[in-house]
Amino acid sequence: MARSYYAIIDVGSNTMRLVIYLREKGGRLREVENVKAVARLRNHLMDDGLLSTEGIQILLTTLKSFKQVAESYPLEEMVCVATATIRQAQNQAEIIHQVSEHTGFDMRILSDHEEAYYGYLAVVNSTPVTEGITVDIGGGSTEVTYFKDRELIESHSFPFGALTLKQDFFKKDLPTEEEMSDLRHYLIEQFQSLPWLKKKNVPLIGIGGGARNLVQIDQNLKEYPLAGLHQYKMKDSDLAFIKNYLFTLNMKKLQKVEGLSKDRADIILPATEVFHSLYDSVHASGFILSRKGLRDGVFFEQLTSDMGTALFPNVLEESIQELISDYELNVKHIQHVQHLAHDLFHQLHDRGIGSLRKRDWQEVKRASYVFNLGEYIDNESSSQHTFYLLANRTIDGLMHMERLRMALMASFKNKTVFKQFLDPYKQWFLKDERKKIRLLGSMLKFCYSLDSTRRQTVEKLELSNDGEDLRVTLYCKGAYMPEEYQAEKQKKHLEKSLKKTIELSFVENKK
């Protein structure tokens, strides 16, 4: 099957990027190439509003180099978009002409509303957040949006970015305390000018390089053990700590901070102050990073052009389907195990066994889609592969803690291996939470053993109490010996979690 590649060039005020995507079997786009150039075009926008000859030359030289990289791929489509600096340039018509003449690119200049909209679209199509404020700080502008029930309600573009704030408020590369204080007062005043930003008490979702660097610094300082930046959550105290920490460093030390790009060292403080001031204005419930931004939003719009809506119906379901496709999972087998797990879970719940809550079922169902997917790599060490793949792969629609819980359930093998996987994250959970995850994992493992030959032999199960012990009657069609053998072997994990003896009874289903 021929591979489909798509490319987008994002001409920003601080950086320019070429990103090339491969369209996966499931239809989603996977990034395969990401080329960055720190052009800082904003510094070449003159007082008369014209982009200087030097600035245009930097733009053209960078685009030509991007074109050479892109030509090594059989592209289905190439998109070139530009944001604040080109949008604000008085000679934008000449710039567009020069770009077309020297590169052949039809550069599209996004309006401030479009720039904000694409950021919002990327967030709602790649995170579980249904109501929030997005903020995307570039070199020359800052876009904010408010969405509720995943629908865009408000958007605004402020005519300042990390580069312009540095130029306007800092005399040198690094600010004084007074300059930082002046910047904070200015930003709060700007944010409070929009009534819809005030005291929303919703998540603040950061987009772009500044937000990404902020999260990388936080993860490095905390020696964060889980992989991935997308959907990582920080608190107000985290933002304040990092801002104060960075402020104490000289430029030489700042450039060596783990997680901070050297080319952003001189603009990270203005960017951090934007996030912190906006967090306070919004009374945000947390700061979440979205690694998906403007470029992804542009393609999301195109991918959904024939759907009648630009919103994916369910972000997590899309991601689960992507996993099923990537690891060639047996859908019929999954659905049957879910059916058995549903019966077992609700019969335990109805009897008050295992301290199960109705909402726990959603976690069991989620993990059942990907239970033991590590078999795709190696059957003997499938549990290890399952945990590693799920714990270290971004799954759109799942926050980091939710992803970890799913990885622990879906990789359950036995108590010893479970504790081994859990150990780096042990302090993240209360003792009762750890027990619950182990119980749900052992329940899934038992239900998978009931369809060990993928023939849907065990059609249903019924649970009954025999004093303190449990009896599970399993109604089967056809030969059930392999399932009986596996179930007898695997029930011990469930018995240990429930602290009950389980007696299994396999019978032929007469119905």
From TrEMBL:
<feature type="domain" description="Ppx/GppA phosphatase N-terminal">
    <location>
        <begin position="23"/>
        <end position="304"/>
    </location>
</feature>
<dbReference type="InterPro" id="IPR022371">
    <property type="entry name" value="Exopolyphosphatase"/>
</dbReference>
<dbReference type="InterPro" id="IPR048950">
    <property type="entry name" value="Ppx_GppA_C"/>
</dbReference>
<dbReference type="GO" id="GO:0004309">
    <property type="term" value="F:exopolyphosphatase activity"/>
</dbReference>
<dbReference type="InterPro" id="IPR003695">
    <property type="entry name" value="Ppx_GppA_N"/>
</dbReference>
<feature type="domain" description="Ppx/GppA phosphatase C-terminal">
    <location>
        <begin position="317"/>
        <end position="475"/>
    </location>
</feature>
<dbReference type="InterPro" id="IPR043129">
    <property type="entry name" value="ATPase_NBD"/>
</dbReference>
<dbReference type="Pfam" id="PF21447">
    <property type="entry name" value="Ppx-GppA_III"/>
</dbReference>
<keyword id="KW-0378">Hydrolase</keyword>
<comment type="similarity">
    <text>Belongs to the GppA/Ppx family.</text>
</comment>
<dbReference type="InterPro" id="IPR050273">
    <property type="entry name" value="GppA/Ppx_hydrolase"/>
</dbReference>
<protein>
    <recommendedName>
        <fullName>exopolyphosphatase</fullName>
        <ecNumber>3.6.1.11</ecNumber>
    </recommendedName>
</protein>
<dbReference type="GO" id="GO:0006357">
    <property type="term" value="P:regulation of transcription by RNA polymerase II"/>
</dbReference>
<dbReference type="GO" id="GO:0006793">
    <property type="term" value="P:phosphorus metabolic process"/>
</dbReference>
<dbReference type="Pfam" id="PF02541">
    <property type="entry name" value="Ppx-GppA"/>
</dbReference>
